[in-house]
Write a structure and sequence with these properties.
The chain has helices at residues 3-6, 9-15, 33-39, 43-46, 58-75, 129-139, 144-151, 155-168, 174-181; strands at 19-24, 27-31, 77-85, 91-100, 109-116. By secondary structure, the chain is of the alpha+beta class. It has a five-stranded antiparallel β-sheet. The longest helix is centred in the middle third of the chain and has 18 residues, at 58-75.
Length: 186
């Protein structure tokens, strides 16, 4: 017997310690129990749903799809930390990684993992969708200039959002803001 034949890939998918799903054009085609439990849905409810149900807003869903396309086209995969939404509307930080299975169309088919970071990084302030997007990019260590280029805003507009985030998190420096966003300082 071939060693690969002895591996039960369905069981590996279902019992993985992180949320996993297979997507087609940003529609969930298969998911494991860990993903359903993380987001507070029955697995059967998620199958056939757009990833939109996992995002805080339709705008964030659209912007994220547009933002990750060139990265997936270039690298074949994508990974970030962002705020997602559970079925009960609770927002939480999540590490998301994915790989497109068709290089010429990264959203056509993909495999995605989701890791709940809420125990390490609680969402502590009410943020607008744009602030959530900028906060996620700040956590990645990006400068205002890089963020502006990546999401199509002026650096001044990004600085304005960063200043609002600093007020909301009572941070006196950008470094302190990032630490608070990461949940290191409460």
């Amino acid at each position: 017997m071939n060693a690969v034949q002895a591996i039960d890939f369905e069981s590996i998918f279902q019992y993985a310690p992180v949320g996993m799903c297979v997507s087609q054009n940003r529609i969930i085609r298969a998911c494991n129990d860990a993903l359903a439990n993380m987001f507070g849905y029955q697995k059967e409810v998620l199958i056939g749903q757009s990833f939109l149900v996992l995002y805080p807003s339709p705008d964030e869903f659209e912007r994220t799809g547009v933002r990750i396309t060139p990265i997936m086209n270039a690298k074949g995969s994508y990974s970030d930390e962002r705020i997602m939404k559970r079925a009960n509307a609770e927002l939480f930080w999540c590490h998301v990684s994915g790989r497109g299975l068709q290089k010429e169309d990264p959203h056509a088919y993909g495999i995605w993992t989701f890791d709940d970071l809420s125990a390490k990084r609680p969402v502590t302030a009410e943020l607008t969708p744009r602030e959530r997007e900028i906060a996620a990019l700040l956590v990645e260590g990006k400068t205002s200039k890089l963020i502006a280029r990546q999401i199509g805003l002026s650096p001044r507009t990004v600085e304005m959002h960063r200043a609002k985030l600093m007020r909301k998190f009572t941070a006196s420096t950008s470094s302190e803001l990032v630490h608070k966003l990461l949940g290191i300082i409460r």
